[in-house]
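Residues determine shape. We examine one folded chain.
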Amino acid sequence: MMTMHLCLSTQIKHLRRWRQAFPNGHIADSAKEFSATGPPTLLWLHSIDPDESRIDKSIFAIRAILPETKIVVISNTPSQQEALLALNSGAAGYCHAQASPSFLQQVATVVTNGGLWIGSELMSRILAATEQLQTSEPNHLTLAQLTPREQEVALAVGRGISNKEVAQELAITERTVKAHLGSIFEKLEVRDRLQLAILLSRDTLPEDPTQSHTYSAFPG
């Protein structure tokens, strides 16, 4: 089945390369009309000015209308802070709005096949931050929602280790780890292990407005 691309934007002039990448795609300023006519396979959310809009609110609004549609944020001025916010709100990708058409097509291929696409520098920061979970002060407000055992499982998974390694570390079965993870994801409203790691580590990520234009694919 052909992938249907929809870009939500109020500044079409910045989407010349997106149009070249997806000549059969649609550009609109609202997703509501597509909830009735048929949801797009991939929705591209154009971030005009991160300082004036909260990308998380836009993503939540879209997911309320099109809950099954994958979302990629394309930003005029990409930043690691906005990328984190977008991913933590349910986006499956984040990249520069002026990326080349072939690059945008590659992002689409990764995301539609179930992967995540984020900046390589951001991923490095996430991994570095999650490695610090053992020694840094945990996010107590987040962890307070969990039982003591769930907190142990969440912090272990946040370090990037497997269910088997968590089970061995905590002297429980892998089945029990999976059960705890299901409860953790539900309570913290995250979809997967990466979102959990981001949620637990985001308070330790440094504030850095540096824009990165090098992006890579990380299967999810």
Notes: DSSP finds eleven helices and seven strands in the chain. The beta strands are 5-8, 26-28, 42-47, 70-75, 93-96, 116-119, 215-218. The longest helix spans residues 174-188. The two ends are 22 Å apart (CA to CA).
